[in-house]
Amino acid sequence: MRNASLTPPIVVLAGVLLLTACGSQKADSRSDGLTQRQRSDATGPPSKSSCGASNSDASAKPSTSALSGSPSGLEKGGVRITGSSGGTRACAEFDVTNHGTEPFTYTISFEFLSDSGAALTQTKQTVPSVKPGQTVKRTVAMGEVPSHPTGAAQVRIAKVRSVPAEEATSDTEGTCPPSGVRVYADDGDAAMGLRVVSLHLENCGTRIHRLNGYPKLQLLDEGHKPVNGVKILQGGSAIATGTGADGTPQPLELKPGERAYAGLVWRNTVEGGVDKPVNVPYVRVWEKPGADPVMVIPEFDLGTTGKLGVGPWKKRASGR
Question: What phi-psi label fits residue 78: left (phi over 0), alpha (psi between -120 and 50 degrees) or beta?
Fold first, then answer.
């Protein structure tokens, strides 16, 4: 098993950039310890977006201030907003620098706000396989929001997560991994303090894939270090019944294109259990013994319960 103690840049940015002309309003440049050659070594040009249309949008109302709050809040942990564009199709330019020692894949959550501070939309963007010492430049666009008034908008980075590139996952898109199986987590469901997230496994290869048992999990904190003090229990009924994560393991044979799932169940209450609430952003998953691990981002808010229930793999019905 690979060393679980990793320390890539993980950060939540609270700064807000008022959107003006994309590329014309730049955040303060600072020395980040990289050479000019390293900074210019990007994996490719910025992704396509609507920034070009926004630049010529006559309805855009330039702001008189580029930053709201501390400038340092827009450049933290290797992620930086560098330019912006307002109007009805607002966008922002940003770059990601990997200060670690191995390639990482970054998932960045952006929030677009109106000029009055009301939330307009949220979006995520994934920047794959950023090499150590490399800076990658990208663009994120808000897209059309019917209720968005003309004028200036704001953008902020709500959350940044990163996983080792060789353990990064994808859902139903992208190239099938060499293993022939794709494992990922959904966004889950929550009701009255009960949380349920499902792991999904798709046989995207060409051979039958066999399962019989529970996925093996390792809980990791924001620094990718193991989280201690949480009991991982077999069966969702150890936490609550009726979640779909109960039952006993059954031998499964997945033909190419077929899928399975396993439920993860917990409560986020703060009564009893451990001394203080436990949050687990990352989970390393082995779908069966001997399999290559993948890292998912379920954002467990375990409260003080100190327990997580894991259901057995079950075959997903065709068409669901």
Answer: left
